[in-house]
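Support request, please re-run this one:
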Amino acid sequence: MRVPLAKYPGMNRFVLDWLGGDERFLPRQTGTLPARKAGARTTVAPLVEALERSNQRWGLFVGDQLARWASGQTRTLIAGQQTGFAGGPLYTLAKLASLVRIKRDLEKQGIPVTAFFWLATEDHDYDEVATLSVPVAKRQVDLLRIRAVRGDGGAHARPVVGPLPVPEELTTQLLAAYELPRPQWLRPGITFGDSFAELIASTFGSEIILVDSLLPELRRAGAPLFEKIRTQHERIQRVLHDRAEELQAAGYAEQIIPRENDQYTLLYELDERDNRQLLNADRPAAPERTSTSALTRPLLQDFVFQPDLFLGGPAEVAYYAQVNVLHELLGIAQPRIALRGHVLVAPKRLVRAFERYGIDPAEVFDSTDQILAAHEPEGVARIRELCNQGKRELLKRVEEIGELALPADHSLAGSIRKSIGHLEFHFDKLAERAVKGLVRKDRERYTALRELVATLYPDRQVQDRVVSWFAYVCQYGNEVIERVIEEVEPDCAFFKVVSL
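Re-run finished. Output below.
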C-alpha cells in the first residue's frame, strides 16, 4: 500500500524536491553503484581489530567480513542512528531494514557488500533517547509513554548518552507493559549503547556490522580530519555561510543553524565526565576526546569508511545538502546519498478497513470525524444547510425585535448583541454534533477507523516517529523484521503501510 511521501506530515521540502530530480545542492544518483577503485582501503589495522572486538562483545562475529572489506573486496554501505532505549521508534527499524534490503539486492546482482551501522553514542539528547511510546493493548487506541528523567548534572552538563546506564525505571515499565522476562540486552547496569547494539545484533545478526562512534580507534583514524577542520576553521565557516545563503535563496531552511555568535559548531571535546564542551579552533584536542557535531559527523564517517552509499533519513539527506561543500574543501570523497524507506505498520484486520470503507491511506492524518465527514458529503452538507437556514431565520426575528424595542429602550442593544452571539454559537455547536452523529451512525465503521487513525497517527504524530518497533516484535514476533525488510522501498518518493 504505497502513498506519496508528499502526503506524509512534516516531510522535508528539500528532500521532496530532491527526490523529484532537483540536483542543485545534492546529486540525485540512482541505479547500480559505479565501480570503485581496486585496492585496499586506507583504513588503519587497529580500527578493523577494534570493530571485530566490539562486535564480538555484542554477539556478532564479523572478522571475515571486516577482512574482506579492508582489502577492498566489497562495496560499503553505511547508515546510523541514536542508541534509543529498546531500539527507539519504528523509523530506526525502517532504516535498518532499508540497509539490509539494499545489501541483499546488491548481493543478488553478484556485488559483495559490507554494511555498517553507525551507533551515535556521542549524542547528548538524553530526553529523546530515554523516551518511547508503546501501544498499551492490542486495540492500540492509547499509547503508554515510557520515559526517564536524567538526574541534575548542572546547568552545563551535556554528557554523551551512549556510555550512560539504562535507568531501571525504563526497563521496569517496558517489561511490565508486555509481561516480558528480562532479556540480556536489558540486564542491570547495561549502557544505552551496549543495550541498543545487543538488541540489533540479536534481531539482525551479522548482516550488519555495528560501529560505536566513540570507539577510540575510530577517533584516532579521524585525527587527520580533525586537524584539517581545526586549521581551516575560518574558511569552513565562510563556505558554510555561503551555502546557507544559497539554500535560503532557493527557499529552503538550513538544517543546522549557527550559534548566537554566527559560528557553526564543528567539534566538541569530551571532559573527564564525558560532557561535550565546544572545542575552540585555536587548540587541538586528543582524538580520543574529540566529538563531532551534526555537521562534521558525516565528514568523519566518509573520511574513515569511504562508503559507496550513505543511507539516511530526511534530516540526514538535508545535512548533506548543507555540508557537501566541505567534502571538496577537505578532500573527502562524497558517497552516493539514498533516502531510507518509510514504513508504517498495522494489524491486517485494520489495514482491511482501507478497502472495506473506501479510505485513502493518506486520509489517516486527519481526525476520524474529518475522514467520515468527507465520505458523507451529501448528509453533512444538508445538516449544515439546515442549520444555516435556521440561524438566518432566528437572526432575522431578533433584528425585528430590535427594530420594535430599541426606540423605547436603548439599553436593549447590548442584550440583543449578546443574544445574537449565543444563537450563532449554539447553532454551530448543533451542526457540529449533528455531523458527528451522522458520521458515527455506523458504529462498526467508526470504531475501525478510529483505531486505524490511532495506530498510524497517534496523538497527531506519525507512528514511525514515536512508537516503538520492539513493541510490535513483542506482539507479532520476529516476523515483523522480515516483513519490513521485504516491504520497505529505500530511496523512493513513497511510504508504505505494511500489514502484520
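The CA atoms of residues 317 and 339 lie 7 Å apart. The mean pLDDT is 89.
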